[in-house]
From TrEMBL:
Quaternary structure and partners: Homodimer.
Magnesium listed as a keyword: yes
CDD domains reported for this sequence: ribokinase
Protein species of origin: Mycena maculata
Domain of life: Eukaryota
Protein name: Ribokinase
Keyword Nucleus belongs to the record: yes
Active site: D265
Annotated K(+) binding sites: D259, T261, C302, K305, G307, S311
Family classification: Belongs to the carbohydrate kinase PfkB family. Ribokinase subfamily.
Cofactor: Mg(2+)
Pathway linked to the protein: Carbohydrate metabolism; D-ribose degradation; D-ribose 5-phosphate from beta-D-ribopyranose: step 2/2
Length: 325
């Protein structure tokens, strides 16, 4: 039977406002365009997994106003039997997107914070992917269930939990951690790890390397992946006993559209889909680098289109682009 991934995460209605510049405090601006699309980190990552070729079960909740979102997720290939319909309204993301593709996001929790009974984990589940747009106790519950069942667990702590929550988080139950460079720095500070001083001219890679080293010392059994936007990705595979981070450059972009919304979720979903393909194999560092190359390419293609969930590329298209390199 085929491997499956369980995603316990958020489901939103994303409202995109096209703006010239991100609004400043006390300022009123006009938007040139408004569009509503399915979104939420859980939904985005689940669709990325499905587009990458994986079987994915999404656990979450929407309101009556979000049933259309659940329907679109199903059309995208996500198994949505675990998506409940609640009296609370569906979660919202108010997203400003500039002409240059930068974004600013305001979240409303809505049904994402509804208490859900524990959902049965399919016996073929090999990976559980978690984020932080749902109550943290729910995340920790599924992390514990996965760890106790020898299921690989992946956590993308965005938005970041509080320093107090991070200090008591069960890192020993986590197989993979995905953060960006800012989150890596915040996590080091929250865990009271020494943050090395770097010169202003240091590259993003040189800044991130000591952060991963500090985090690895705190969570020695967790594999670390740090995304660096235009500077690529840095990874440290502790399951192979690797002590030196591996750096991959970012994908080369095509076209003129640049919208970073959802690129991190696209990366996470494609990464987990790649890990699922390696499950049960005697994987090497080269195998994991190949996984990262594919998800880096997918994230780059995501940036080339507007939107979050709608911009996640199909696996076949990603592979065509990779074969052209």
């Amino acid at each position: 039977m085929a491997a499956r991934c369980l995603v316990r995460g958020s489901i939103n209605v994303d409202e995109f406002f096209q703006v010239k510049d991100i609004v400043r405090p006390g300022e009123t601006i006009s938007s040139d365009h408004l569009v509503k699309r399915p979104g939420g980190k859980g939904a985005n990552q689940a669709v990325a997994l499905a587009h990458a070729g994986a079987i994915v079960d999404l656990i979450g909740a929407v309101g009556q106003d979000g049933i259309w979102v659940r329907d679109e997720l199903k059309e995208a290939g996500v198994v949505v039997e675990g998506v409940s319909v609640d009296e609370e309204s569906t979660g919202r993301a108010i997203i400003q997107v500039t002409e240059l593709g930068e974004n600013s996001i305001v979240l409303y929790k809505g049904a994402n914070y509804v208490s859900l009974p524990p959902h049965a984990i399919h016996p073929n589940t090999t990976h559980i992917l978690l984020q932080n747009e749902i109550p943290l106790p729910a995340t920790i519950e599924y992390l514990a269930r996965g760890s106790s069942s020898k299921i690989s667990t992946i956590f993308n702590p965005s938005p970041m939990p509080t320093p107090e929550e991070l200090r008591v988080f069960p890192w020993h139950q986590l197989t993979w951690l995905i953060v960006n460079s800012g989150e890596a720095l915040d996590l080091c500070k929250a865990l009271r790890l020494e943050v090395p001083q770097t010169c202003a001219s240091a590259s993003a890679v040189d800044v991130a390397k000591p952060l991963l080293s500090r985090l690895s010392s705190h969570m020695p059994t967790t594999n670390l992946v740090c995304t660096l936007a235009a500077d690529g990705v840095l990874a440290q595979f502790t399951l192979l006993g690797e002590s030196v981070p591996v750096h991959l450059p970012a994908a080369k972009l095509q076209g003129t559209t640049r919208d970073t919304t959802g690129a991190g979720d696209c990366f996470a979903g494609y990464m987990v889909a790649g890990l699922m393909r390696l499950k049960g194999q005697k994987a090497t560092a080269a195998d994991y680098v190949s996984v990262l190359k594919r998800c880096t390419q997918a994230a780059g293609m995501c940036v080339e289109k507007r939107g979050a969930l709608a911009s996640i590329p199909l696996g076949a298209d990603v592979d065509v682009r990779l074969n052209q390199l």
